[in-house]
Recover the amino acids of this structure.
């Protein structure tokens, strides 16, 4: 039966595919794809782990004291029976060989399938056996954790556009959509190179970092679809409408046909926009507008160039640091990554932002558990870096060295205090002195700050005394101005880029920078939102940084705009108590 669930639209377009439901087991399971030639080794790894747990339980039975309660022995028998169940082994084999899941993923997927079957059982005793199954699977997963996978190497990235071709060819039955309770930004990045046609998560806000990574992958995604985990089953047919934020499960043929039609229309629209790639980004009155790219990994530079970006306006370097089990990349590794980004942009400016971890971007899953009550107000971004100067200077040295090979703009996240600015700049000088002492070459950089907290927006004149350029991080500026956790879908309806308080801060920062002839950009999600382009142009913004996938649509707006007409209107919008109303007129 067809049914639909509403979530938050985070990444446009439509995906149609079979659901891959990520189980949320109590034990963390790593998820990655293996290569076809690794299937046998992975099945063997799963088998060995299961056998090891069987041995472990048998040993436990042997050493059990004679006076131990009989139930304990019976329980171990049940666990041994579940462990040795042929159907479980067959199913794990199936997920590994048919879907190329790693062993942990295969096991947790099967746990999820069986759990649902248990839930539907009438017999209470049998229903309760679910807990036993979970314990057994957890034991195997825990065993695997201590056993390195022989096949954990990341896969080569899929060729750009491959998944679109898959759909365009009518091969929708081969498409897979990922459904999860939640995905950390690091998980999302791990899936970046694979051919998922879309994503659905049960939690998350529109500008959570998970949503941002989904958007950067330019595939349809819906977050905050609360019931997704319970309602979608493995292999269900699912339509993700990333424009409306709707997920349709088990669609009827008529609905399927309608969405396939819309998918083709979107494809035609993309092709039409593609023709603007080499068109200079000028308004009708001849104002040049720089459209830059936000990237998460050095390899994203190619997509930025392909979309016609004139540089990178935000390289979120924290993604180089995540999902490494706490081991941080050293200076050399970082230098190579930054250099790769610089080389990819062929002389165009690359704005590298120093580490912005914390809040909804934990370094790894373990540190996520160390959350304080208000992680977004805690040790994140520049605060994190200043709390660990050695780590910070390692990153600074790597960036300064990469600057010998191209134009780098060095940018700092979330500064709010003058003392933080001074400490930060002192660390830059120290990093330069360290490189001098070593006789290592480095280049000159422009220094910039993000305006992400109201305090920074309100003291922009101070910032301008220290920095060559500023960039407004609207994602955080909105979060901190309105006291709305950007990752929390429960308050997503209050997260409002058009709130008069937010607009006034944005307008004022742009005006002050322009008055002093300093470079100002916006690199939060509103920069790539076409419904905001005219307003930002009217406020005087001439530098927008966004996901490469949004550049051409924004360029289309720029080409249609006349900034002479927009300026007065933009002031009216900013001064209005209800800007949204004026914007829609
Ligand atoms: C922002 O806050 O707007 C921004 C661009 O930084 P991030 O989304 O990485 O926090
Ligand atoms: Mg931010």
């Amino acid at each position: 039966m067809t049914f639909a669930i509403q979530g938050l639209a985070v990444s446009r377009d439509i995906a149609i595919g079979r659901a891959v439901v990520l189980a949320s087991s109590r034990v963390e399971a790593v998820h990655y794809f293996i290569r076809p030639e690794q299937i046998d080794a992975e099945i063997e790894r799963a088998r060995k782990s299961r056998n090891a747990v069987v041995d472990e339980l048998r040993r436990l039975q042997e050493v059990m004291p004679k006076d131990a309660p009989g139930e304990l022995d019976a329980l171990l028998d049940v666990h041994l029976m579940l462990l040795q169940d042929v159907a479980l082994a067959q199913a794990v084999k199936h997920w590994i060989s048919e879907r190329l899941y790693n062993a942990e993923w295969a096991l947790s997927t099967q746990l999820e399938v069986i759990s649902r079957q248990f839930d539907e059982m009438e017999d209470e005793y049998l229903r309760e056996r679910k807990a036993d199954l979970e314990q057994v699977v957890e034991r195997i997963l825990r065993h695997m954790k201590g056993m390195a996978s022989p096949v954990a190497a990341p896969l080569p990235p899929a060729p750009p556009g491959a998944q679109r071709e898959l759909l365009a060819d009518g091969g929708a039955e081969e498409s897979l959509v990922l459904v999860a309770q939640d995905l950390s930004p690091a998980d999302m990045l791990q899936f970046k190179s694979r051919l998922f046609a879309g994503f659905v998560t049960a939690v998350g806000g529109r500008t959570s970092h998970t949503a941002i990574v989904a958007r950067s992958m330019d595939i349809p995604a819906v977050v905050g679809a609360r019931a997704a985990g319970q309602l979608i089953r493995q292999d269900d047919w699912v339509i993700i409408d990333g424009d409306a934020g709707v997920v349709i499960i088990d669609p009827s043929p008529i609905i399927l046909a309608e969405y396939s039609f819309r998918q083709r229309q979107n494809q035609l629209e993309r092709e039409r926009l593609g023709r603007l790639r080499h068109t200079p980004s000028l308004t009708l009155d001849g104002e040049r507008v720089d459209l830059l790219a936000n990237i998460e990994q050095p390899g994203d530079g190619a997509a930025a160039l392909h979309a016609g970006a004139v540089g990178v306006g935000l390289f979120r370097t924290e993604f180089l640091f995540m999902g490494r089990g706490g081991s941080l990349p050293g200076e050399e590794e970082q230098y190579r990554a930054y250099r790769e980004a610089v080389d990819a942009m062929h002389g165009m400016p690359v704005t590298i932002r120093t580490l912005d971890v914390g809040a909804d971007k934990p370094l790894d899953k373990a540190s996520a558990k160390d959350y304080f009550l208000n992680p977004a107000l805690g040790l994140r971004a520049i605060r994190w870096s200043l709390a660990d100067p050695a780590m910070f200077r390692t990153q600074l040295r790597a960036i300064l060295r990469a600057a010998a090979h191209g134009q780098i703009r060095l940018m700092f996240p979330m500064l709010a205090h003058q003392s933080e600015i001074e400490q930060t700049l002192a660390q830059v000088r120290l990093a330069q002195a360290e490189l001098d002492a070593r006789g290592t070459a480095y280049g000159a950089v422009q220094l910039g700050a993000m305006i992400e907290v109201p305090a920074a927006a309100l003291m922009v004149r101070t910032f301008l005394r220290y920095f060559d350029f500023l960039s407004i991080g609207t994602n955080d500026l909105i979060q901190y101005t309105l006291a709305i956790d950007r990752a929390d879908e429960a308050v997503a309806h209050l997260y409002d880029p058009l709130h008069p308080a937010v607009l006034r801060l944005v307008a004022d920062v742009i005006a002050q920078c322009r008055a002093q002839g300093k470079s100002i950009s916006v690199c939060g999600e509103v920069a790539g939102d076409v419904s905001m382009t005219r307003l930002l142009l009217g406020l005087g913004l001439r530098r927008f940084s966004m996901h490469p996938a949004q550049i051409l649509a924004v360029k289309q707006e720029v080409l249609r705009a006349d900034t002479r007409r927009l300026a007065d209107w933009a002031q009216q919008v900013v001064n209005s108590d209800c800007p949204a109303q004026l914007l829609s007129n």
